[in-house]
Amino acid sequence: MPRFELASPPLLSRSPLNRAEELRKDPDALRAGWPDAKVLQVDHRGRLQVGPDGLTFTPATDLGAEPAVDAVFLGIDDGHHLWAKRVGALTGELGDLRTIGETLDETQLSILTSALAILNWHASASFSALDGAATTPSSAGWSRTSTSNGHEEFPRTDPAVICLVHDGGDRVLLARAPAWPERRFSVLAGFVEAGESLETCVVREIQEEVGLTVSDITYLGSQPWPFPRSVMIGFSAVADPDVPLRFLDGEIAEAHWFDREEVRGALELGDWAADSDSRLLLPGSISIARGMLEAWAASGD
Questions:
Q1: What is the pLDDT of residue 276?
Q2: Whose CB has fewer CB within 10 Å in the chain, the N or C terminal residue?
Q3: What pTM, to 2 d.p., does this model score?
Q4: Would you call the peptide bond into 224 cis, given omega within 30 degrees of 0 as the criterion?
């Protein structure tokens, strides 16, 4: 059975930022670094101010003389402590990870991806899962502590599988979710359920979404996906294209088998935002789906 591999790590998986975890529980060191620190401010829609050099940071001292209680320490870059903070409103030119991700370098991508994931967790973790008591940020934003019993809770990451289903030859199965505009297709994906292995999830999700049984499940790679706080774990698998497709769980509006040349043509057009009347438009490069499709398309050479 032909196999293929990702040509390079997904964009959001390249994480050169020094997270400096040892400083999270060292308030003296964090206070000492605050005067020269920089803060990435993110609004409730995941948007931030954008400048000619990509991400725009605010001097930490503009927010106060000491680290803000609701700010998250992200790490150290170029000798400066970096923090992230959720704010109510921002002015000026704004962008988000989907719209500006392809313009950022690897360090800025890792900063923004980490900031979004941890801030999104804080937004839904204000109360303890144990007893409903209020929680407050701790460990420089990398945990929350219950005000009733001191129990410490840590950031939640939701694992999801994403699978490129092909026929072992020159066809790949791509699908469109009901909320997506027509002609926008991608590979299949779904969340891992409790008590389920990643491979079992692949089998279940493909069966539920399109009614196919897959085999030859092969791991390809993974990437963080902070929408709101997931990690995408990529696989390929093989299915029989002669088996009728059945959309069993309502998560797929349509799915079709596309040949390799059609996928290559769509990749050359760009991404979902391409100005084209092609019947196939594909995800952009910040998604691991793009790298999976590029690798499969190139494997036929």
A1: 86
A2: C
A3: 0.94
A4: no
